[in-house]
Structures are given as structure tokens and as C-alpha cells.
Amino acid sequence: MPAELGQKEKCVSAREPEKGGIVSKKRSPRHWSRLTQYMVAAVALYGAVLSTITWMDQRAGKARQLDVRLFFAAPISEGEQLPQSLQVKATNPGYQPVTLTTGGISLPDGARWCVDRATSRETGDWSFPHRLEPEENTSLVLNGENLAALCDTLDDRGFRGAVSLVGFYEDALGTIYQSEPLAFDTSVAREIAEKGMLPPPADAPSTNAESTQP
User: Fold this and answer.
1) Are residues 85 and 191 in the same domain?
2) pLDDT at 165 over 70
3) I need a labelling partner for 72 at 20 to 30 A (CA). Which of 5, 32, 54, 173 fits?
């Protein structure tokens, strides 16, 4: 009897393995079925995300796009300095042409100051409607009389001195594209309209001033 008890004490239970021992368990068919379901769901989710990204890329490619900038510039053409001007520049970065039907300046009170025809040495003469092909750009160039007329309109509406203006274009579908606001001073703009260039800063030394000794 004691010998038999000793042999039983050496037996290892499958539920209570010895320290360091390894018990092999077989996976049930139900376990593998769940794993397969998880894998199928993961693949389906990946496919849905990929198709959504593809659809968004295709939609973005078909959408009409237009970048609008409003800025002062003093261009140089063929080595000649051109008069300084206020420009509303439109660039088509998309894959579809955009037909511009009107453009100009949005005033501080929300009214639109429209330009019917553009005349410039940079972009040539053109009028609305104007078809802008992909990767093309064009500008409304305001100088001289046009710039003075803009200042007159602002004065008539009670906007004098420093104001904020926004350039805009509208396409044939009625979509309005706008620029970032530009700080605009009517008194400075009038000098540009008259003289063709920005006036020098107030603290800039005058080239015609006589030198004096302290």
C-alpha cells in the first residue's frame, strides 16, 4: 500500500501542472471559427476604408477649385518697372476648368465692388466670362483710375483710412471664392493711383534734402 501511494503522488494532474511543466490543450472548432470571423471583419473594414479614400480622391479631383489672393504688387516686365497695382489673382489648382463670371473686391460692409474688364500687361486684356483652365492663373489689376474709383467708393460708403478688403471671384455655378483679408489704407492707395508707386516711409531720408552739420 505505501508503494502504491508513492506512485500516485508522482502523477501529475492536467489541471494542476508541476512548476515549469507544459500542458498541451487542443483548440476547439468554435475557437477557430471566431478567429476566422475576426479576420474576415478586419479585411472588410480595411476594404471599406480604402474605398472611402478612393472615393474622396476622385471627388476632390472632379471638384472645381480656385485659390484667390489679394495683394499689392509692383511687377517688372521686360526689364521695365510697371506701376504698382492692387491685384486680385485667381489660380486653378484643380483638374476641372472654372468659368469666372465676375470678380472684384468685397467691401467692409459686405457689398461687392465688381470689375467688368481687366487690362494688364501681365495677363493681357480679358473680360467676363473668362474660362480658367487647370493650372492656369489670371489677375484683375487695379491701378490708376480703377484704384482711384475703388477709393471713391469706399469714401462714399463711409470707409476712410485703414480698412480690410477681400478679393473675390464667382463662377458660372454661383460658387464664390474669396481671398484672405488685406489691410488697405485709402490715403496710401490714392497716392499709388496718382504716382504709380508706394510713397516712401515717413522716416526715410530724402535724397534731395540738403545736408546740415550739427
Assistant:
1) yes
2) yes
3) 173
Burial of 73 (0-12, 13-18, 19+ CB in 10 A): middle
139 to 35, 119, 196: CA distances (angstroms): 61, 9, 18
- Report the alpha-carbon distance of residue 171 to residue 7 in Å, rounded: 95
pLDDT for the residue numbered 38? 72
Question: ∠ at Cα 13 (10, 19), nearest 5°?
Answer: 75
CA 191 to CA 187: how far, in whole Å?
7
Q: What is the mean pLDDT of residues 147-153?
A: 95
* Burial of 71 per CB tally in 10 Å (0-12, 13-18, 19+): middle
d(CA 115, CA 107): 13
Is the pLDDT at 122 greater than 60? The verdict is no
Q: Among 2-16, 63-77, 134-148, where is mean pLDDT lowest?
A: 2-16
State the total domains in the chain.
2
- Asked whether residue 12 carries a pLDDT value surpassing 80, the answer given is no
Statement to judge: residues 120 and 44 lie in one domain: no
Q: Which domain holds residue 154?
A: 67-195
